[in-house]
Design a protein that fits this description.
Strand order of the largest sheet: 1-2
CATH class: Alpha Beta
Radius of gyration: 17 Å
Shape: globular
Number of domains: 1
Structural class: alpha+beta
Mean pLDDT: 88
Number of helices: 5
CATH superfamily: Ribonuclease H-like superfamily/Ribonuclease H
Order of helices and strands: EEHEHEHHH
Number of strands: 4
Length: 152
């Protein structure tokens, strides 16, 4: 007999990998949520990026519907130093964040949290460790197929 604990508990995440213009500074920014991410969470995330990053910001993201809407547009109008460019459709290979999630999923592969709180705690610990590893963050960027002038 096989027993399976099935729940609809989940954690949603939004993240960004930053590379400074001189390629000297790398950063990893992540927000975890216990519900689906909406335009509101995207707007909050953008405000946090603006607080942490100086100067102009060029944000590359996919065409997801959560990246559109009044909440996000309001942030973009209010902060002209934030410029958004969309990745081409169906191009996850260009997105360094795909490598962030690949790394985190690999680290989680042999674990089995008993509840969503344990999963959240583990994700936060893994993210904290990853933030301290410049080489790892650089690998997320270089593993992507971004044009070379955008890579580390």
């Amino acid at each position: 007999m096989i027993y399976h604990r099935y729940r609809r508990d989940k954690i949603s995440a939004i993240s960004a990998v930053s590379v400074s213009p001189q390629r000297q500074h790398l950063g990893l920014y992540v927000h975890f949520h216990r519900q689906n991410i909406t335009r509101i969470e995207v707007a909050i995330f953008l405000r946090d990026l603006l607080r942490h990053l100086r100067g102009p910001i060029i944000l590359l993201w996919d065409g997801g519907s959560i990246h559109q809407g009044e909440e996000v547009e309001r942030i973009l109008r209010k902060h002209p130093r934030l410029h958004c460019q969309r990745f081409p459709a169906y191009a996850p290979e260009l997105n360094p964040d795909e490598w962030v999630w690949r790394h985190l999923k690999h680290k989680l592969a042999n674990g089995r949290p008993d509840n969503v709180d344990q999963l959240m705690e583990t994700l936060c610990q893994l993210t904290k460790k990853a933030r301290k590893r410049r080489d790892l963050i650089a690998s997320f960027v270089t593993a992507s197929k971004l044009p070379s002038f955008l890579r580390h």
